[in-house]
Design brief:
The complex is a heterodimer of chains A (117) and B (327). Chain A has helices at residues 5-24, 58-111. By secondary structure, chain A is mostly helical. The radius of gyration of chain B is 20 Å and the shape is globular.
Chain lengths: 117, 327
C-alpha cells in the first residue's frame, strides 16, 4: 500500500494543477455569449445534422482484435519475468501458446479482418 | 511517518514543475528545430532568440475566451482535457531519473516510487489517456471531432499491441518489471544492442501512440481541421496540448529506460546522461515530423497490424530461444 500512496498523491496534484489552469483564467478572460459563436464548427456552414450518427463498423473490429491481443500480451509479461526460473518447460509451454496465437493471427489476416477498406 | 510523505510531496512538486517547463520549452524547440530544417528562423521576436515565446503563448491561452458550444455534453466536455493530461503526468511516478545518491548525509532516491510492476503501471496508465480523446470527440457533438477521436482510438489501440510486444523482449533480458532494476541490469550493455529490432518497433509505435506526424491522422488539419479538439479553446485546448507533449516525454523516458540504459553512461553524472538520452529521442520525434508526409489511414493500419506486430512477435520468440540457450 505504501508504495502506491505517492502515485495517488501525484494524480491528485496533477489533477489539481490541471483544474487550476482551467478555471483561474476565468477571472481575467472575456465572456460574451453569441448564438453563432456557440454553434458547432462546420467550416462556417450552418450545421445540418447531429454528429452522433452511425460510423464505420471497422472501428469495432479493431477494438475486438485489440482486446484479444492485449490480453495475450498481459499474459506474456509475467512469463518474461519468471523466464529464468521456469527453464525449458516454460519455453515450450509459451511457444505452444504463441503458435496457437500466430495461427489465429494468420486466419484473421487471410479472412481480411486486417484489411481497411 | 509524516516526514517521508512531506519528502514525497516535495519530489512530486519538483518533477511536475520540471515536466511543465520542459513541455513549454519543447514547443519552442519544436519551432526552432523544424524552422532550421526548413531553412527558416522560427520565433525570434519575444525575448532574446525568442526564448520567451512559450511564456507569451501561455499568457495568450489563459486570457482567451473559453468557448463551450451549446450542443456539447458539458460534464464530459470539461473532464476530457483533464483525463488526457493527468495520466500523462501520472506515468512519471515510476521513472528512475538517476541512481540513488547521498546529499546532506541522507540517501536521496530520485524517483517518486519504485513499483515492482513499474512497466505494467506505465502501460496501463498511458492507455487511460485514450479515454480523454474519445470523450472529447463524443462530447463535442461535431463531425470532425468524432471522426478524429475514432481514428485516434483505433490507431492507439493498434499500436499499443505492437508497443506491448516490443517491450516484452527487454523485460525477458532483465527478468524484472521494476524500471529501476531494468536500468541496473543494463550497467554492462544497453539493451538497444541486442534488441535493436524491438527498439525500432518501439519508437515507431511510440510516435503513433502519441499521435505525432507522420501518424497524426487524428488531427489531420487538411481533412478534419483539428480532429478531436476542434471545439476546444483557451486553457482546455492548452491541456490537450500539454497532455500530448507530456506523453511524448513519457514514451521517450520509457525508451531511455528500457533500451538506452537509463542513467548509465561514462564520465558525466547519471542525471545528465538521462536527460541527454530523453532529448535525443524527442529530437527524433521532431525530425520525423519535418521529414515525412502523413500516411493514409489504411497504410497506417496495415503498418501496425501486418508489419510491426509480426516483427515484434518474431523478435520475442527469437529472443526467448537465445536467452534460453545462453543461460
Amino acid at each position: 500500500m505504501n508504495e502506491y500512496l505517492p502515485v495517488a498523491i501525484l494524480m491528485l496534484i496533477a489533477g489539481a494543477v490541471g483544474a487550476i489552469m482551467m478555471f483561474v483564467g476565468g477571472l481575467i478572460r472575456p465572456k460574451k455569449y453569441d448564438k453563432v459563436k456557440s454553434s458547432v464548427y462546420e467550416c462556417g456552414m450552418p450545421e445540418f445534422s447531429d454528429a452522433r450518427k452511425r460510423y464505420n463498423v471497422r472501428f469495432y473490429i479493431v477494438a475486438l482484435l485489440f482486446v484479444l491481443f492485449d490480453v495475450e500480451i498481459v499474459f506474456l509479461y509475467p512469463w518474461a519475468v519468471a523466464f529464468g526460473d521456469i527453464g525449458l518447460y516454460g519455453l515450450v509451454a509459451m511457444f505452444l501458446f504463441l503458435i496457437i496465437l500466430v495461427i489465429g493471427f494468420l486466419y484473421e489476416w487471410k479472412k481480411g479482418a486486417l484489411e481497411w477498406v | 511517518m509524516l516526514l517521508p510523505i512531506v519528502f514525497t510531496i516535495i519530489k512530486i512538486l519538483i518533477i511536475v514543475t520540471v515536466i511543465l517547463l520542459a513541455v513549454a520549452y519543447m514547443t519552442y524547440a519544436e519551432r526552432k528545430v523544424i524552422g532550421a530544417m526548413q531553412v527558416r528562423l522560427g520565433p525570434t521576436h519575444t525575448g532574446p532568440y525568442g526564448l520567451l515565446q512559450p511564456i507569451a503563448d501561455a499568457v495568450k491561452l489563459i486570457a482567451k475566451e473559453d468557448l463551450t458550444p451549446d450542443m456539447v455534453d458539458r460534464p464530459v466536455f470539461i473532464i476530457a482535457p483533464l483525463l488526457t493530461m493527468v495520466p500523462a503526468l501520472a506515468g512519471f511516478a515510476v521513472i528512475p531519473f538517476a541512481d540513488n545518491f547521498t546529499m546532506f548525509g541522507m540517501e536521496i532516491k530520485p524517483y517518486i516510487t519504485d513499483l515492482n510492476i513499474g512497466l505494467l503501471y506505465v502501460l496501463a496508465i498511458s492507455s487511460v489517456g485514450t479515454y480523454g480523446v474519445i470523450m472529447s470527440g463524443w462530447a463535442s457533438n461535431s463531425k470532425y471531432a468524432l471522426l478524429g477521436s475514432l481514428r485516434s482510438s483505433a490507431q492507439v489501440l493498434s499500436y499499443e499491441t505492437a508497443m506491448g510486444l516490443s517491450l516484452v523482449a527487454p523485460v525477458l533480458l532483465a527478468g524484472s518489471l521494476s524500471l529501476r532494476e531494468i536500468t541496473l541490469a543494463q550497467a554492462g550493455m544497453w539493451f538497444v544492442v541486442p534488441q535493436i529490432v524491438a527498439f525500432v518497433v518501439y519508437v515507431i509505435a511510440a510516435v503513433a501512440e502519441t499521435n505525432r506526424a507522420p501518424f497524426d491522422l487524428a488531427e489531420a488539419e487538411t481533412e478534419i481541421v483539428a480532429g478531436f479538439h476542434v471545439e476546444y479553446s483557451s486553457m482546455k485546448f492548452a491541456l490537450f496540448f500539454l497532455g500530448e507533449y507530456a506523453n511524448m516525454y513519457l514514451v521517450s523516458t520509457i525508451a531511455t529506460v528500457m533500451f538506452l540504459g537509463g542513467w548509465n553512461g561514462p564520465l558525466l553524472p547519471p542525471l545528465v546522461w538521462f536527460v541527454i538520452k530523453v532529448l535525443f529521442i524527442m529530437f527524433i520525434f521532431l525530425w520525423l515530423r519535418a521529414t515525412l508526409p502523413r500516411l493514409r489511414f489504411d497504410q497506417l493500419m496495415s503498418l501496425g497490424w501486418k508489419v510491426l506486430i509480426p516483427i515484434a512477435l518474431a523478435n520475442l520468440m527469437i529472443t526467448a530461444i537465445v536467452v534460453h540457450i545462453v543461460r
